[in-house]
Amino acid sequence: MTSVVPRVRHLEKGTGEFTLSASTRIATDDALSPAARLLQASLMRATQLPVGFGDDGQIQLRVDESLPREGYRVEVTPDRVHIAAATEVGATWAVQTLLQLLPPGIYRSAPLRNTRWAIPAVTIEDEPKYPWRGALLDVVRHFLPVREVLRFIDLLAMHRLNVLHLHLTDDQGWRIEILRYPRLTEVGSWRRESQVGAGENSSHDGRPHGGFYTQDDIREIVAYAAARGITVVPEIDLPGHAQAAIAAYPELGVVDEPLEPWTNWGINVNVFNVEESTIEFLCNVFDEVVDLFPSEYIHVGGDECPKGQWEADPRTQERMQELGVADEHALQSWFISRIGEHLASRGRKLLGWDEILEGGLAKDATVLSWRGWAGAIAAARAGHDVIACPEDTVYLDYRQSDDPREPIPVATVTTVADVYGFSPVPPGISDEEARHVLGGQGNMWTEHTDSPRSIDYQVFPRLCALAEALWAPDLRDLDDFEARLTHHLERLDALGVEYRRSDGPRPWQLRPGVPGRPEDKETAAANVQALTANIAVE
Known about the structure:
The protein is an alpha/beta fold. Helices cover 34% and strands 18% of the residues. The chain has helices spanning 33-47, 88-101, 146-158, 183-186, 215-226, 243-248, 276-292, 308-312, 314-323, 328-345, 374-381, 391-394, 416-420, 431-434, 452-459, 462-471, 478-495, 521-531, and strands at residues 10-19, 25-28, 52-53, 59-63, 72-76, 81-85, 118-126, 132-138, 163-167, 169-170, 173-174, 190-191, 195-196, 203-204, 209-210, 231-238, 297-301, 349-353, 366-369, 386-388, 437-444. The chain has an eight-stranded parallel barrel, surrounded by six helices. Strands 1-7-5-6-4-2-3 form a seven-stranded mixed beta sheet, with helices on one face. It starts with 9 loop residues before the first strand and ends in a 7-residue tail after the last helix.
């Protein structure tokens, strides 16, 4: 089978096939040995064949420096398999493609009876369009154990996505151990209950929920992802979405009242104060984050920060006069800029949601644009790099049809076809401005997904469509994709992924009585326009 997802750039079918056997060996250049070990582990797990290494191996991984950084070449004949790549990551993508050429059972943990492990003769040359091909996973609203994060990483790698944006802090919880400030997890990692549903008819479940990742957990996640070609980008949200941190350390807040990690969804009024001591606290937090995550980018949030507490607080108003900032939007820009300066001193780049454009953009900041296209356009025209994730197209927590049985009936409908049509380049910008678009990502927020099964349902197969839209957008053909997807779903079946089927939710996926807040496309567009009123696009 050659129904590879995402689609490869060039594929030429040959004659015959290469068959794995007990004598199959792998030969590799040292620079590509991590990819070779990944291939070996995948083959041995599923086939139970004793695939080892040998200089005369029939499967060879060789360095070819003429290829692009993430590019690769795979040549399969009846006698051998030859993989060429300039880098380890290119070889890793070659391995993922090679696995998809095998029967779907290659993704199981033990062999199925009477399976022939044959690879069709083929020549493939491939490379991605965009360097940023990502997915956000929110582990705050509902915590995922390490093993489930690693499983999610495997699924990203299978689709040749290369960024995991890990949303680690918010009003409802603090999910990363910070040794200097232990109360962030002692107090901030658990809430006493959770909201169920959205809107006026929502309720609460009465069940404590929480968890956090130790620093060793984070090291494991980062290393596991790196071995599969994926960079983990951490997000520590500020100056809003801060209630869990303020609950742990009340001196960080504006209002002098005891708080607990928030039990609701939505936008919370509590924000960090703007004292130097708070900036110092957060810089100390980021020092530990930087030590754990080698990512070039560190995400600082910056979204949905209400200004009401700052406006009403005499000390904040006094502080604004001391700093010489004109208004609360400029104050947020000052706050973000201070963190950005600290990250720059540690050799990292600041990444934030498009609200960081309001009040002036921090120097050298990269914008993750979610509220339609206004932020992406403004940032690109100002010479800042952009990653696109418009909420009406690639928010994977949004409902997938108008079917009232959808388990999470919130927001506007976003179908597989909608995601497949996604382009991260905003309309109306020049070719020069478009060079600032690094790529795009899909976002999986977990307010309404409280288990790995429900995440599977929301993410797949829409993530398959996103991967192709970012890898080979110039080759898109929806009919061809849907034909390949039919076979690709057999691979997801072998992996135990409980994706949404084309005929709707399965019985266990139905969640009657969970109120939603559906929107049509026109209402969603109007809401986005209102949200981006403070972003000037010239």
